[in-house]
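Trying the structure run again after the queue cleared.
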Amino acid sequence: MNDIGSLRGLDAFKAADAELRDRVKELDALADGKPFTEAQRQEYEQIMGKGGLLEQLGASIDELEIRSADIKRLAGDQGISAEGPAFPLFNVKPRVPENVHDLAAYRKQVSSVDELPKAYLDGAKRVIEKISFPSAQTSAEADRFRTAVERLLIKHADQEHGWVSRHVLGTSDPLYQEAWARYATGGLGALNGRMQAALQTYTGADGGYAIPFTIDPTFILTNVGAACPMRQTNPKTGQPLARIETIVTKAWEPVATAGVTASYAASEVTAASDVAPADFTDLTVTPVRGQVLVQFTAEYQEDYGAAAISSELGRIIADAKDVLEANKFITGSGTNEPWGLVAALIANGTRAVTTGTFDLDALDTQELTLGPRFRNGGRAAHMANLGMLQKYRQLGVAGQPANSIYDPLSATLHGYPVFEASYMDATFAGTPSKTNYDVFGDFATGYVVVDRLGLATEFIPQMFDGSGNVLGQRGIYCRWRTGARLLVPNAFVLAAHS
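Done. Tokens:
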């Protein structure tokens, strides 16, 4: 039954729903414990997949039931009987079903489709209270992960019909986690019918299956790789150094302007002038694909199994992602990759202070060049390679301790927080674009990182060498989307040695 548009009436929709559920059971029986044939798989996905026939019917049934109840209330028919009202004026049912991972059950717990995002949010909060994070080394780190995920849930609670909450609920389902672990090591052929149905719930628009959120580096920021300061916490603000935006859509679309002009009125009846800015700047950031291929041998799969491999995948992917971002958030060209901060400042050409001598006067000049709006807001910080930071210690004068300028223990430079950036220049040598040794500025105002939530995975059953010979290795291809760009050039000063 493919044409649900011809159905009329609640009974017809319920009958179609029952018919499709029976057909799913028939398909599983026909498979007889074996993987589906291509035709069976296509029919199964058409019925059970994300946006499939069962999901469409469920949404229609929910709407018709709610509409029927609303109409009876409006007509004054409260359905009073010996057993009480059939449609009570107030919905006293809990919003979260007994099985917190059963997304379909949430529709039966609310009286309106508008309440679903809040119900999903309540359920997702319950999940993160008890869930364990394989990559967390300490309870404090696990709490940090929970806080990060809860912030994402609240921020995106009403977006895309509660997509983030639904993602957390679905990918934390024990059945989904087991299905994904088996898929990651054996492909779809390693799954039974129930597991295939669970995975199909979170198929990406471009294919692939969502990694469980507990090991997804777009949800859990671990910073386990190279020194990538943009996501680290600024101790002065308690927030990430750079501005971090998460989206569930294609692009982040703000606008910026140099501002408007304020004035005092000559009298109480003086009209206000129109000072609307005419210099709006489009600062859209469209996250681009990041990717990594994780390979493992058939022997490793046989010896350690799906659970061991899946528990390691989150750490491996996060490490590769951190190293890539540490590079591109500094040097990225903005073409098919994020704009790097230093690369963007060089391209801007107006925010560099060239110093002929590396001394304390050069450091003072750099800091004084930054406008007071950005210097005094409590968010200003330095960023440099460790090789350059160590040189600052050599600038101490007689009678001063070596850490009076740069203190690695308190992570301060000249009294401001300082962050290590592995991919900034470690020495003065090199071409003009390689002689930039210190960025000082308000990172949270001037630079943004945009993450598209969700990381998808695809199983590769066999790897080959350059000659087409079998290597006896499996592979997991992982992809995510991240973008970054310079928002406010005046928020930074780049120190360069001539």
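Residues 236 and 444 are 12 Å apart (CA to CA). Worth checking whether this holds up in the mutant runs.
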